[in-house]
Amino acid sequence: MKKIIQNLLILSVGMNISCSQEKKEFQYPDVQPPVANVKPFEITAKHGHVRVDNYYWLNDRDNQEVIDYLNAENAYLDTMLSHTKDFQDKLFKEIRSRIKEDDSSVPYKLDDYFYYSRFVEGGEYPIYARKKGSLNADEEIIMDGNELGKGKSFLNFFTSVSEDHNLAAIIMDTQGRNFYTVMIKDLTTGEMLPDKIENIRSSAVWSNDNKSFYYSIPDPITLRNFQVKRHILGQDSSLDEVIFEETDQTLSCGVGKTKSKEYIIIGSGRTDASYAMYFPVDNPVKPIVIAPLQDNVQYNVDHAGGESFMIYTNQDAVNYRLVDAPISNPSTSNWKDIIPNRTDIFLEGVDYFKDYMAVQETKEGLAKIRIIRYEDQSSHELEFGEPAYTASLGNNPAFETDVVRYSYTSMTTPNSVYDYNMETRDKILMKEQAVLGDFEKENYQTERIMVTARDGKKVPMSIVYRKVKFKKDGTMPGWIYAYGSYGYSMEATFSSARLSLLDRGMVYAIAHIRGGQEMGGDWYEDGKMMNKKNSFYDFIDCSKWLQDNGYVAKDKLFASGGSAGGLLMGGILNMAPEVYRGVVADVAFVDVVTTMMDETIPLTTFKWLEWGNPNIQEQYEYMLSYSPYDNVEAKDYPHILATTGLHDSQVQYWEPAKWVAKLRTLKTDKNNLFLYTNMDAGHGGASGRFERLKEVAREYAFAFDILGIRE
Asked: Does residue 688 have a pLDDT over 50?
């Protein structure tokens, strides 16, 4: 069917494709976009409000009419951007050429083994491997992703090795819906065991006896993780014991093991609250609750030895604090501060070692790493020298060591891995990600700006550009990105793909808007639920700042965001379409009210405390006031490229599809409006390190084409 539609579109174009050299705009006068059929469907809220959704029918992926429509949109996009195909290929090859194809991660030591992953030239997927005793020893391959991915249109996989290092759980998703299948490999023989568990949504957490492991599975309707099970090797998975079941539909549970390897921790939570349970790792008794669920209280539990749990929590601490609690009675009345709440510093997390704690914090939107010695509570900070950067604690499985691994990157510095000796304070650069070609970090400039938002709040914004191309005269093209939800902070990180924008004169900015936690716990609270519009306002105000201060031309600014960041894109398109020349909205969550009303859609109830419960009229009306799909109007919009994945379980494909269909009928401009659906993937797009770059190249070509940049 897809080929037929493509051929029809190509035939309809015929010889009428024209190019105006003066305006540098390609025109396709005879090509008409697909038009989705209008089928009115009434949606009634519990408090009586009625909405009519003309494209509700698109939510049936088993309906051939739906598939035909998605294929027609893909064909339309291919045709309308066909003149950029050579440029897309050039961008793809350019981006790929910067990647060191035969690359490997920095090995980490665990007991007698050094574990790492590596890529081979031309390989799409990682090879997980190890060496015993020394890095000069022979390599043992745990799993070769290129072999595993043969014949599969999609693959995402990872491994979990047993405590005795003799077995490995191979955990893989072949659809992109985040449903994983677990298989077990005997690393002593190289053979696969008969054990097979399907449809899990977690890693495999091994017991210390190496005979069993724990995992979590989703509710088949809502897809929230609702059970933790234990699998005994050699046993049919249908007999796996349910260790815990979460009956509250607003909560999702997971399972992990403490750093001491003495306890299994089961955590269950939602966006505003969580609680945890524990039991000895090899004795799966009924899990013991540490502290019951309490509204607006989050906490995570670890154990590094001794008689106390270490608990990271926001109880009475908007910026989080670290407490300890006796294992014999860990209730909240016995929690004692180790690191108290501070008004100016956000506590991101802690890692534990024999003699030290490594603490990750954020101050004024910038990451800090602090080392605390247990013996005398003395502390010191690591120093970082750029105005906009990010640093974070790395993989540190060893406990009896003075060395902590951390990563560092900025918008001009490729991702770098350091080993830092907490005793001597010496650091060693273990690896800086190679960027092939003529890249020199000195050719690029990064800045960090505090933008005054309309309500007076100071919003951090990180900016990068190529020095020789940049002129602060209001003529530059620009690209601004943000996320702004769930408390996820968007850091000022490096991207080798982004160089293709910078080298063509694009100014790139990341707006650290409310809804993330870049500026602390209040920053998140001030961008969620009944404060959600602050995220949109912050983004628009940062965009205007770039234009008003000469960084970007008023008619050359592009914006992008994905998932909840796609909601952001939909919101700013309705609120301030005149600010942007074009917008890329990836896997966009744009139909907020309908999705939050449908409790059969995966993860809906789990997200009520992020967006609102539509059964509560005040929250319903607030969501309705900004919902991108519900607020599409008959007016001019900029150029738009929306993307989705047919198998996406986090933001269902029909949200962007309905949004584009409605925009087509109402928008009054002649700007491009495209929908791309990856028919083989889910929320993360194409799998493989190179295939996904083709999607990046398409998005870049979409923007460059509008700007008249062809090479």
From this structure: yes
Check pLDDT > 80 for residue 306: yes
Which of 360-384 are b and which e, b meaning 16 or more Cβ less than 10 Å from the residue's Cβ? bbbeebbbbbbbbeeeeeeeeebeb
Q: Exposed, middle or buried, 6 (CB in 10 Å: 0-12/13-18/19+)?
A: middle
- Asked if residue 336 lies in contact with residue 329, where contact means CB atoms within 8 angstroms, the answer is no
Nearest Cα to Cα of residue 696 among 482, 498, 468: 498
CATH assignment of 41-96+438-707? 3.40.50.1820
User: pTM for this one?
Assistant: 0.86
Cα of 380 vs its chain's centroid, Å: 31
Catalytic residue from among 324, 683, 687, 705: 683
| Tokens read off for 138 | 């022979």
What is d(CA 176, CA 88) in angstroms, rounded to the nearest whole number? 24
Report the distance separating Cα 461 and Cα 217, nearest Å.
39
Asked whether the beta carbons of 200 and 217 are under 8 A apart, the reply is yes
Rounded mean pLDDT of the chain?
A: 92
Residue range 415-447, pLDDT digits in tens: 999 999 999 999 999 999 999 999 999 999 999
Per-residue pLDDT, 690 = 80
Active site residue 683: yes
Catalytic residue status for 82: no
CA neighbor of 389 nearest in space, from 363, 407, 409: 409
Catalytic residue (one of 351, 586, 648, 705)? 648
What's the pLDDT at 683?
Answer: 54
**Active-site residue, from 117, 202, 543, 563:** 563
